[in-house]
Amino acid sequence: MMTKDQYIESLRKLHLNLYSFGEKVENPVDNAIIRPSLNSFAATYELAEDPQYEDLMTATSNLTGKKINRFTHLHQSTDDLIKKVKMQRLLGQKTAACFQRCVGMDASNAVYSTTYETDEACGTHYFDNFVKFWTDVQENDWAVDGAMTDVKGDRSLSPSKQADPDLFLHVVERTADGVYVTGAKAHQTGYINSHYVLVMPTISMREGDEDYAISFACPTDAEGITLILGRQSCDTRKTEEYNDIDVGNKVYGGHEVLVIFDHVFIPNEMIFLNGEVQFAGMMVERFAGYHRQSYGGCKVGVGDVLIGATALAGDMAGSAKASHVKDKLIEMTHLNETLYCCGIACSSQGTKTKSGNYLIDLLLANVCKQNVTRFPYEIARLAQDLAGGLMVTQPSEADYRNPATHDYIEKYLKGVASVPTEDRMRVLRLIENMTMGTAAVGYLPESMHGAGSPQAQRIMIARQSNLEMKKELAKKIARIK
Amino acid sequence: MLRCTVKFCGGCNPRYDRGAAYQAVRSSLSDVAQFSYPEDGTHYDALLIIRGCTGCPYLYEDIDADRRFLLVSADEIPSVTEQIRLLA
Questions:
Q1: Could you confirm whether A298 is annotated as catalytic?
Q2: Domain assignments of chain B as residue spans, ordered by start
Q3: Which domain of life is it from (chain B) (predicted)?
Q4: What is the pTM of this model?
């Protein structure tokens, strides 16, 4: 396994074609806007080195028998699925941000089982391709980004019917050695911090969409790939002279990029689906299921930090003993632990796929994610309720450091006498960061849309609700023949 | 000296500081026991399993140890320490 330092150094060797704020970024590793996201990703390496977290952070590979980082593991039991969720909660607690490595883990497990079943039905050799690639990933502890979401253009039209054929990533040229692909993947969390990208189709495909039913892996800095960094609210606070208190979370963060593939060559041995339209849906459904399970861990860990910050704000303001404050903290905890219950439940009810790895219970995973589209918003609302208006009206750190205004701020922003004013400012900025600043991108809209928007889960819930059985139950009780 | 090893649960939601608990046990027993992290093929007199909560079921059967001691809360540090001391 790589150490944290080895991982960071390995990223310096990438030659990403990355743009941000209208300029080419030559050194993403030390870029003030991007670095916090790298630190979050690096925590997945750092904690794996610590005996206190080893039991969650590492696993034994079914491919090599060696000890590996769990983020590269192909789940071999329901216990593995449960440990995955616990690991994600742990990382959320340590970073209070999206640590970005889950998407590659979820993609790998979906592609592993789908390629097996595709080969079985179609006589292809995608499973062998994937096993070779993933063995290399495990051996080198590579960071892998999973890329599913196409930009999609006109949502009423299928991929092959779009006015611009590139609005879904597709094969534009075929040679004896491989294929060339063109298109774009949106919202790519953690791409800049990854060595490889594992691409999957974004929706179920039908006849005529063969060029769009493509799955492959390639280096993140492959020729023809251009990246454009997404903006986050309050992101430029990280570049200000005083960038400690006001950023809320100085060390950790997340990022998303728009990834453009412009005639990128993919060799045959890195292709995992190529025209078998009937298996695109399976890959999408399984990836989405795993990723919806993930949110029952990562967002819970971030929620733990937000609940803690809110409780601290109450302590510092002297309001901790008020009954409504206690009750709201209980409500926040109840909501957060409900999400965790869903993550654990869909894991414990997992089943073995034909390939041997384990898949979560898809109905429960979708219920999990449906709750995630709602509860973090309510937790954030309660956090803002208890934090008070000072969370968004307090002066800047620059004013706090300015001798002309420091003493006034120190005096008038004081809460409980024994608590330094600076500490109170820090915890309020943390709540701001998590509920409306850079970290809110990960905690709120990502909870809404990441791993699929709410309606996507409702479609899956409808498909698996077993409604006819429920009707029969009612008929029997009501004595209807 | 007793040859002891320690195994932590993964630490997803610990109710106490497991690292500090380990240091407390270890230092209290420094006159009778030597602790290290588990290594394959090594036999230990005692395995101290430090769980952050009551929800962790693992006994780490792959670790070769004569006795297993469970620590589930900070309150148990004195009693677990004494139980290990009795082996010496």
A1: yes
A2: 2-85
A3: Bacteria
A4: 0.95
